[in-house]
């Protein structure tokens, strides 16, 4: 691994990583000039330097994956699982270092960054053991059936979970015998590179995973998507915005490919009168402001029963006012840090006008933190990052744009309802269906919410966010195309049935035309008529 000293003002953040693409088991430069991976926390900090890829780089990576496919797909699943077990071990060994880079690069707090690395480790461990159970995946039928890998899997994942989101796809893809071409987020290239080093240290064979770096639609991403029409991939996986997901769905559809899409969300939480209000407040804080509200599963619409609306509002606003915010590198105990990139910051600022146009009331927030407006709750150097005040809106109804529009950032809408039926209707009133939560002790409300929520994941007396590697996860409606990641369910996403009719050469059997279904042992009749 190649490193260089950082700028003197931010030398205490850590060194600058000199990164590469990883194609065919080799670290390579790209065809275009390199780019700097700047820290979201402090843009003076260059976390890494990486090559920008052009069309030829992407083509080379796809061809390397195709070349490696045969050998890897014919490798025993148990051996593939053993490699994944070693990847988990190397991630665990370097967990603190990887987490520190996640904090520098995208601004997650150290606690959340460590949790993300642990999630990646857990996914690896889950599929490590799955390799021993996979066997040949035969179907118990007369005509033999086998599970076969698809081929080359392309992976694009957003920057809010730069390690966990791609690993949810990458690890099961390679366990089931596929090879991978991965384009990491330009905002998290260093995090991706450290994971590549773990793959290298674990001895993953050349070409099984290939990584190309670069910008999105205006750079490497354009050539990466073009690979769909070129026939480079047999599967395309994407985590990110709904508009980009639609574009990928169109490209995949015309090539008769089923993509795996995990997209946006407008996630609701219902608060009923019988719940533990303090627990509900904590669930709402974590859901709305964890990772600065920059998660697809972040809480958006907080739907509160009118009988506890005033009490909940007071407790929640007091808790928001007490949040410690700011620079997560120098002050690791802050609740959330900066926006990941300027594009997210600009979109977040635009939502202030959207809320006011709707007639909603802004109870707190509505500005970016600067040196001249910071309070005692804001910690560390914030001048070279995009640090936003937490926003709480009131008076939202489903007909308002802010209720319906996904907003990345620390903001939440307080909505008051008269009863459970209205709360349930409002929780289902957007076209998204990713994650949801309810706070109540009443079992019939809980059972109805589990049955009738449109979200793919529901939480009872918890937060909207949080995933388990052994459970299926994905999105409905505008939040995805129904595919699921996690646990054994991923077998459906990364393999296909391969039916084999293997007859002896001396006799041709015609299915369903010549079997003798009368074959059986003859016994004395039972004489039921004598009973």
How would you describe what is shown here?
The protein is of the alpha/beta class and 531 residues long. It has 2 domains: 57-263 and 484-494, Aldehyde Dehydrogenase, Chain A, domain 1, CATH 3.40.605; 267-470, Aldehyde Dehydrogenase, Chain A, domain 2 (3-Layer(aba) Sandwich). It contains 15 helices and 24 strands. The strands form 7 sheets. The protein has a 7-stranded mixed sheet with strand order 16-18-19-14-13-21-22, sandwiched between helices. A 5-stranded parallel sheet has the order 10-9-8-11-12, sandwiched between helices. Strands 1-2-6-5 form a 4-stranded mixed sheet, covered by helices on one side. A hairpin with a 2-residue loop joins strand 3 and strand 4. The longest helix is centred in the N-terminal third of the chain and has 25 residues, at 110-134. The radius of gyration is 26 Å and the shape is globular. The relative contact order is 0.12. Residues 138-144 have low confidence and may be disordered.
In short:
This protein has 531 residues and is α/β, with parallel strands linked by helices. It has 15 helices and 24 strands. It has helices spanning 55-73, 77-93, 95-106, 110-134, 164-175, 189-201, 220-229, 242-254, 277-289, 309-321, 342-358, 401-404, 420-427, 443-452, 491-494, and strands at residues 2-4, 16-18, 21-23, 26-28, 32-38, 46-52, 144-149, 152-157, 179-183, 209-211, 235-239, 260-262, 267-271, 299-305, 325-326, 361-364, 378-379, 391-394, 411-417, 432-433, 435-439, 457-460, 476-477, 495-500.
């Amino acid at each position: 691994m190649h490193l260089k000293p950082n700028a003197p003002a931010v030398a205490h953040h850590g060194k600058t990583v000199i990164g590469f693409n990883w194609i065919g088991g080799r670290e390579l430069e790209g065809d275009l000039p390199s780019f700097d991976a700047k820290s979201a926390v402090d843009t003076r900090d260059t976390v890494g330097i990486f090559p920008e890829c052009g069309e030829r780089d992407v083509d080379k990576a796809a061809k390397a994956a195709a070349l490696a496919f045969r050998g890897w797909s014919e490798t025993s699943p148990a051996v593939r699982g053993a490699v994944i077990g070693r990847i988990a071990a190397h991630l665990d060994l370097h967990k603190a270092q990887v987490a520190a880079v996640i904090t520098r690069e995208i601004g997650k707090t150290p606690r959340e960054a460590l949790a993300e690395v642990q999630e990646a480790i857990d996914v690896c461990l889950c599929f490590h053991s799955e390799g021993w159970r996979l066997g040949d995946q035969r179907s118990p039928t007369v005509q033999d059936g086998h599970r076969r890998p698809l081929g080359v899997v392309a992976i694009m994942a957003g920057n809010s979970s730069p390690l966990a989101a791609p690993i949810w796809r990458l690890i099961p893809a390679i366990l089931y015998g596929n090879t991978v071409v991965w384009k990491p987020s330009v905002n998290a290239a260093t995090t991706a590179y450290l994971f590549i080093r773990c793959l290298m240290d674990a001895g993953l064979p050349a070409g099984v995973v290939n990584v190309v770096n670069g910008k999105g639609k205006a750079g490497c991403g354009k050539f990466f998507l073009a690979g769909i029409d070129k026939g480079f991939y047999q599967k395309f996986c994407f985590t990110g915005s709904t508009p980009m997901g639609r574009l990928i769905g169109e490209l995949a559809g015309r090539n008769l490919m089923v993509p795996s899409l995990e997209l946006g969300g407008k996630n609701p939480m219902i608060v009923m009168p019988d719940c533990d209000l303090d627990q509900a407040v904590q669930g709402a804080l974590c859901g709305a402001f964890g990772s600065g509200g920059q998660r697809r599963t972040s809480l958006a619409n907080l739907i509160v029963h009118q009988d506890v609306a005033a009490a909940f509002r007071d407790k929640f606003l007091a808790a928001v006012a007490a949040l410690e915010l700011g620079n997560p590198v120098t002050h690791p105990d802050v609740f959330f840090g900066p926006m990941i990139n300027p594009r997210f910051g600009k979109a977040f600022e635009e939502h202030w006008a959207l809320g006011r146009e709707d007639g909603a009331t802004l109870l707190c927030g509505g500005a970016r933190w600067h040196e001249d407006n910071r309070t005692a709750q804001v910690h560390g150097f914030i001048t070279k990052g995009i640090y936003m005040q937490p926003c709480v809106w009131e008076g939202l109804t489903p007909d308002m744009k802010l209720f319906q529009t996904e907003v990345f950032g620390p903001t939440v809408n307080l909505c008051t309802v008269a009863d459970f039926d209205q709360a349930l209707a409002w929780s289902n009133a957007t076209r998204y269906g990713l994650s949801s939560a309810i706070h109540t002790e009443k079992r019939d409300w809980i059972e109805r919410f589990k049955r009738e929520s449109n979200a793919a994941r529901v939480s009872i007396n918890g937060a909207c966010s949080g995933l388990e590697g052994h459970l299926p996860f994905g999105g409905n409606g505008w939040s995805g195309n129904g595919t699921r990641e996690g646990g054994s369910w991923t077998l459906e996403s990364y393999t296909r049935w391969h039916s084999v009719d293997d007859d002896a050469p001396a006799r041709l059997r015609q299915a369903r035309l010549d079997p003798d279904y009368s074959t059986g042992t003859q016994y004395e009749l039972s004489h039921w008529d004598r009973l």
